[in-house]
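Tutorial, part two.
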Amino acid sequence: MDAGTTGGFERDASRVSREFWPKLKKVARSIPFAEDAVAAYYCAFDRETPLHVRATLIGALAYFVLPVDAVPDFLPLVGFADDASILAAAIANVRMHMTDRHRDAARRALADDADVA
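Running the prediction step on this input gives:
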């Protein structure tokens, strides 16, 4: 990554770190991809994950937390379709880097926090 790209990555990572959990708590019950989103979050912030994988996941998660996107999230049934598609595409590209540890942590986070699941 060059200096310009690194700044964007750091800005997006900071936004995801700040806004992911509050957004997830609001919508977890209404999205079928909550576990994938949380596993992607853990993978993206795992220092052992390669930088290009982290950047891919941070980009997808940043789209999830953005207040404005292609399909407004408040629309019933279709509101999170674009978020799910982007996250699914990102995960498909980096699946081999998402470990059982990330998925187990996601399941625990969703099970442990009644406000999330």
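DSSP finds five helices and no strands in the chain. In part three we will examine how such features are distributed along the chain.
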